[in-house]
Amino acid sequence: MISTRSLIQLCRRVGTAVKSGIDARRVWEMEERHATGPLKAALGGIRQQIAHGGTVAEGMQGADGYFPPMFVQMVAIGEQTGKLDEVLHRLAEHYEHLATMQRTFWIGIAWPLFELVFAVLVIGLLILVTGIIGSVSGGDAPDVLGWGLVGPSGALVWFTFCAFIAGGITLFCMAITRGWMGPQPMLLAMRIPVLGKCLESLALSRLTWSLALALDSGMDARRAVELSIRAAQNPYYESSLPRVTAGIRANRQFHESFADGEVFPTEFLQQLETAELAGATTETLLRLATEYEDRARTSLRILTGIATVLVMLLVFGVMIFAIFSLFYHAYLKPMHEALEMAETGRI
What we know:
Elements: H1 4-19, H2 24-34, H3 37-51, H4 56-61, H5 69-81, H6 84-137, H7 151-178, H8 184-190, H9 195-216, H10 221-231, H11 235-238, H12 241-249, H13 254-260, H14 266-278, H15 281-346
Helix pairs in contact: 1-2, 1-6, 2-3, 5-6, 6-7, 6-15, 9-10, 9-15, 10-12, 12-13, 13-14, 14-15
């Protein structure tokens, strides 16, 4: 899959070249010549497709999923309507907004995550060093965590355990966002304060922007709705796709069809109904996309702050637990055992 940064740059360059009237074959020849790795192979496929009379979208489809599905479909519409340059520039703006929000989140929690990793490493080194000291001195090595983890084998178990937990959390988040477990986990996540509002705003921003762009490019209503709902990248919203498209096939209005999906917020449906009555659907959708992006940024900032506090609390909790556990096993427990032996000797 192409990186977001590479995709943005590609959209900007090709959009500018197309707008300047440069021949399509020359455009993609230049792109292929300056590219490297998988991107070079993908661009070479596009160039070959164009050389044989095909389209850019067909060349992208032949890249085995290297380009995002929504991106490929929008490029196809841009070619069909003669608005490829405009579509590419709007796609660049869309992916830039997504990249900015992702970057804001990761920058916000970067330091707490570093502290967490550092704490895990310190505990692992304590397990390793205390085990080595115990084996050299011939005595019992202190059990740092009280879990029986001592020496190199204990450190290995500790690092494996932490890696398993981190991998499990990552896999679980991917399963929710990609719908591997169906739409219900996403529905539950959207009901969590702050997190739910952030997920909703991000999804509706992508949906409204994609629908506006598709309608403005001349795409038929059914394809536009299907594309926009898939572009939302929300399994809960995607579960409504059959019901919404059925309404479109029945020649119902957009707001009625989306209402048939029974998953979209009332505010969105009301805005869409007003836009259709006023005959300004595209303009309203673009305005809504901007509003939802602003809401998503606000929610993301709050979410980043909450995540930062939670990670820091986790770090402090792990370190405090390790310190008290080490203090108990290295000092209090031997002292208690010595007192018991002394009392037993007096008896």
